[in-house]
Predict the 3D structure of the following.
Amino acid sequence: MKGESIMLDLQAMFYPGSVAVFGSAGEGRLANVLTGRLLDGGMKRVCIVNPKKEPVRGAKGYASLLEVPEPVDLAVVASPANTVKGILEDCGKTGVKAAVIISSGFSEAGNAEGERELAATAKRYGIRFIGPNCAGMVSTHARLAATLETAPPAGNISLISQSGAVGGSFMALSADDGVGIAKFISYGNGGDLTVLELLRYLKEDPETKVIALYLETVSNGREFMETVQEVRAVKPVVIVKAGRTNTGQRAALSHTGSMAGADAVCDAALRQCGAIRADTLQSLFDLSKGFATLPPVRGRRLLVVTNSGGPGVMTADKAETEGLLIQETSDTVKAALREFLPSFAGLRNPIDLTVEGTGEQYERAITTALSESDAAVALYIGTPYLKAMPVAQGVAAAAKKSGKPVAAVMQVGSDIGESLKYLREEGCVPCFTSGERAVSALAAMAAYEERKSTRKGSCLAQAEPVENAGGVQNLLEPEAMRLLRGSGIPVPQSAFAQDEEQAVASCQEIGYPVVLKIVSPRIIHKSDCGGVVLNVRGEEGVRSAFRKLRAIGEGRDFRGVVIYPMLTSGKEVIIGLSRDPDFGPLVAFGMGGIYTEALKDITFRVAPIDREQALEMIREIKMYPLLNGVRGEAPGDVGALAEVIAAFSRLPLLYPDIAEADLNPVFVYEKGVLAADVRILGKQR
């Protein structure tokens, strides 16, 4: 029902029968240009509203919307900010149900109250709008171009952009490349329609095959993740998120979080909900083009067919770094290739036809070798005096015969322009400017199909708050250990002693050797001040260690010592919790000990997560082979570690007052794990 509702709500916006433009009709003014763009795009019923009743070309001018004799479906507003509320009032009175508010001067200029008034007015009359302060919108299949940006050809890519200029650049790439757009929405300040609603609309839109999204900020991060996961189950969502560098990063809250700026958090969230992240605008376009024009990539085996060795090798190298498989052709395929290729051709994959490769050889080589591959890249690096068209025809014929994804790189030839046009018109073989860029698109498509078929359920695990949990302030280590134990996280046997006699008795009960750690709310990092005494044996050793720790804690609110058995060291890892302003609780995982700070080999997820997601985190870090056992070492109990990460990730949901926490180190043994140290801090009040 939600999908049906949003489709009905936005019908007038994306498929209007008539449009009214508001603003000055003077030459070069926004409303004048917008009216011309609408007429040039093929919109038949367009009028313009301004105090002087000035017409624009064939569009009649009216002083007020109330004077327009026929019903209007969509209002495009490019008038001063102080007039927009009144325009919406008139829209409401005359039954207009959708508006594109290009006018600026609202929250982006400090006029948040004016923007709230627009939203309230629109809601009162049931008007949905994008903007204010936006670059407009395009709905190519409805012949609607309510924007100042480049008009793209019709197609099946839809773009939502927080930046009008980025949207314009994307559509310029589309126009140059001949890859069409279904819809473009620049939502500006998001005064009414949000990214989430637009995503849900495009999920149901039959004209949209892939959704491209440019973001600068993410609000309601957890709802955003859930929405993206819901949408990408139906069609791919490719995202460029600006702010990758330190300039845009937020201060982190915890020890582990200090290695996760805003980009690391966002990257983890996008990966977790199944979005495909692009690094650049060009990459956003390349990936969208691949999804829009190719059949699904249902595997990672890649075939490369080339007429030039160097580009073929570079394409193969890129494929391996992207996780695609360049497998040598089988003896059966090699025998089939020898029947029509010269003796000097390379048959192993990449298949090198050499400079003498013909269109027929391309067609037969791709068709033959694709029998044992999932996708192909065809590279043609020609010369100015040879024709490229036969190769273009051969590649297109092979793609049609195989039914598998085939991407092309066509460079140089006496008829290269005509050849590229031919492939665009055939519509089955997209062209990329390099083999590396083609590979990136195919790798993203393969990853999308894998995740689509394997990942089920919500990207965020569930965790109900503990009833009567009470406030969690900065917990001393004995209290924190009790909380972990009660949450199912394995911790060593321990005891808390406030004086020497208690310490001696507790050590005797635990059994030597033992470890004594200082307990003080004013000492967070115990090792830095000598607050940990290892390998303590016998009564005198206990007394000496206790006195040493008490002396260190003098004047620092010394509470006593916590005692553990001396543990056998396992493989050390660190698990951390922190909070992000947009996405809420985060869980971090990486190698512990000296590796934590030196290598910053840390990965993140938005919490809580389940065991499967925890296993994904473990396998992501560069040092995973150490956990899995190298050079004859026994592997660590990765399954038990995943259970601990998942359980720990639920703590900030179970106990909402937890602000940050670290388990460092966690010892991973051949069988089982133990959290050897813990720090839990509550929210500041």
About this structure: The chain has four domains: 2-242, 296-454, 493-565, 571-682. DSSP finds 24 helices and 27 strands in the chain. The chain has a mean pLDDT of 92.
